[in-house]
Amino acid sequence: MNIVKQLLSIKSGFGGAKNHSRASIFSLFHSSAATPVEVHSPEQEVVIALGSNVGDRLSNFNEALKLMNNLGIHITRHGCLYETAPAYVTDQPRFLNSAVRAVTKLAPHELLGALKKIERDLGRTAGIRYGPRPIDLDILFYGKYRVHSEILTVPHEKIWERPFVMAPLIDLLGSDVDNDTVVCWHSLAANSDGLFKLWENLGGESLMGKEELIRVLPIGKSFLNWAERTYVMGILNLTPDSFSDGGKFQSVEAAVSQVRSMISEGTDIVDIGAQSTRPMASRISPQEELDRLIPVLEAVVKMPEMEGKFISVDTFYAEVASEAVRKGAHFVNDVSAGQLDPSMYKVVADLEVPYIAMHMRGNPCTMQNNENLQYGDVCKEAASELYSQVRDAELSGVPAWRIIIDPGIGFAKRTEHDLDILTGLPTIRTEIAKRSLALSHAPMLIGPSRKKFLGEICTRRDAIERDPATIASVTAGVLGGANIVRVHNVKDNVDAVRLCDAMLKRRRSIA
Description:
The protein has 511 residues and is of the alpha/beta class. Strand 9 and strand 10 (222-224) form a beta hairpin. It starts with a helix and ends with a helix. It folds into 2 domains: 44-219, 2-Layer Sandwich (Alpha-Beta Plaits); 228-510, TIM Barrel. The protein has 17 helices and 18 strands.
């Protein structure tokens, strides 16, 4: 059965649509410039493509998203972010491309007018067709309708030939169909098998990582191609009570020395935490956390060795995240995925930095309670719960292209659960992909380092004796699809990661 037949059979289960034929899924709207036909309904779901290759491309995107919301185009989903080679006119800078789903009460030509106003406000002027531009906003889909006039064609007529448009468009979907408007988008495709088949025919995921189409994570003014290699995050705990190294790096001098050592051993990211999240850890206030964190952060930021490296702040407090980013941190690493501070999502959205969202039930004092350890299938349930949290973050203004997912090894998990997650990372992505392909493509971080489950399996009571088991778990995770590994022992894990990356590269070269 092809995708459209599958979608049409699914459509029959939607309220109000069960007795309609395929032809009635959408309507055709034709108009002339003098007598435009507009669609009038309370609200329509739309897809808008974004492109930029002039000026600060990411800033152009961020400003365009804000202006859309101000003009009544309320964004609900974001595609991934792509750096792409220019098409048609090739002698120009590389583009950033993405797409968003949104809901609006604006009629099609009103929507077009709003988008053109945003383009003008961001400095776009008349120029050569397909030439350089600070922002380009195109309507790909408008509700269930086909629109045609002298100034507007929907679906956009060149969707089907452009990988840089199709990739973020596909990101906005799930492998499961979430509503009958999406059914219609598939039926409007220039291929009877729907959007997924069109994407596959263009090359699909095989196009990723090539010069023409690179999926990237924005960090400050740079763009990280996380699929190119695995990144190592070195742990710096400024706490007196962390399970592995509590009390060792509380002074600024000791902390700076440890960072210098991690950098010499090859770390890419320094993750600084000033609040312990071990089981049963006592919670400290945001101010106490800041008192521990800020002197060290300020010193680390000034280190010449930090050139080309990144800093992550490990906190579940929005206030701490905000101040840390203001002082120079590049990431926010939240073990609660926004569950322990209701302000976190909005603050991270405003900070415009990558957000690491980790799966955990309860809080550090309750996460290992019996009720939080009940799973039927830990990979599927952790994926579902984490998806719900990152969707809330996205609806609060954190684009999917800035989200990093962490399945939370050791947090509200028994030993068997941690093992299932280490071997089930592809399952986690597949489960998330059912509802959002963009979020399923997000970089994945794992943090098995020196965790209790390694001690239980290897009979190593002291955390520092678990480094060999950590290396084994990191190896399993990277080969299973992890993109970032969070570790205490940087040197040995850097070697493990390099070997895994070489193995994966070799596998791809002979596939």
